[in-house]
Amino acid sequence: MQGIRVGALPLVGVLGGMGPAATADFHRKLVAATPARRDQDHVPLLIHSIPQIPDRAASILDGADSPAPALVCIARSLEAAGAELLVMPCNTAHFWYDELRQAVGVPVLHIADPVIEALVQGGSFSRVGLLGTRATVAAGLYAKRAAQGPARARGIEWLQPSQAEQHEGVDPGIEAVKAGQLGRAEWLLREAAERLVDQGVDAIVLACTEIPLVLQHAAVPVLDATQLLAEATVRWALQPARLATVT
Amino acid sequence: MQGIRVGALPLVGVLGGMGPAATADFHRKLVAATPARRDQDHVPLLIHSIPQIPDRAASILDGADSPAPALVCIARSLEAAGAELLVMPCNTAHFWYDELRQAVGVPVLHIADPVIEALVQGGSFSRVGLLGTRATVAAGLYAKRAAQGPARARGIEWLQPSQAEQHEGVDPGIEAVKAGQLGRAEWLLREAAERLVDQGVDAIVLACTEIPLVLQHAAVPVLDATQLLAEATVRWALQPARLATVT
Description:
With 247 residues, chain A is an alpha/beta fold. Chain A has helices at residues 20-32, 56-62, 68-80, 97-103, 112-122, 134-138, 141-147, 151-154, 163-178, 182-198, 225-238, and strands spanning 12-16, 45-49, 85-87, 127-131, 157-159, 203-206, 222-224.
């Protein structure tokens, strides 16, 4: 931020509001993931939580107004305010990741990267289930990003709920989180996770940042993309050679 | 925010980072306090969480560097980005409230106001205990603000922990929250609350935004300044005649 010295730590810009509760969840997880003894040890953040950004899924699936101009505008304003890294705690919005990266001169951490890294480091995961919006699943967000990664990432088979399960379970579950109907959301998403386990997955990725607000566990290991993005953001901010590690 | 239409809802600017976990707690409480069925119903927020702002208590008590220039700079940058209301989820920083208000052309919601309003509406509260930093208590933040309020607010007697309890209980408890030592913090602050109850208070105000992270209840009604500020912010943002109500 112009005129304010924020010490040795870089300012991190957050493109948020997609949705608002997910952004607050990311905020809390980032603070909790920071090794700090006092306020001044924490990562300085600029969070733009603008829930009026055009609906991402409606744009991808139905050709409604694109959120890209708003996302680019927010990203540039965060950069102009001094942000040295941008993050976006919304999986579906990563459909426009390349446009965002090209619009700014600072790195943008891709939400799928720390998830794929954790799966590769975990070693034994080969059939991975995805719980995300219909748009995230249809866009192949994780598979495409993994295809650019190391051999072990390219070998992951990505499984998704059946079309009926997606329409009647996952999407209404995510909408219920946004509407504050957490009991209903938990029930719908837990059912969807159990159907993925029935398909023989050996891990489940919570690939929509609304989901970990109501679902944290299943019969197989669960990877929370919000938590992993928060941890990756803190690692980036605290390590001196950070500019070399994010492309 | 310039260039982004955020619909009918005003943009709210948050001066945060004092401390970081308290800002995240305010963020969560504000989202949860919003009556919304979908993302677009939520209040757009710009949150500047800058934990490197000079220490507020050290400035008030020991004459260390003032945080006022940084606070004014952040407030002006939030206003320049389009914020129509500013809030600051940190009690101690309200020591510089008048400077902030004069530095910007938009209203700044004072954190003590919704607390005093709740006490007045509650009706039967006359001996109110304050749990806050030594600096907040020494500055008489709540008593001074109540003195500007209606007669019933002026009649409140404000009680505080003994000097020993403040030094050995409350201040180390707040520091322990900032250091992530939540078990120790809860123990220290619960003891301090019990000593206030022993003094015969009929309500306790959590007058430091770190405290509700570990303490929510006592043997008398507890008023959480973070929660009340979040609710007041949402009320302001959602009501059309808002400009008439905040001075």
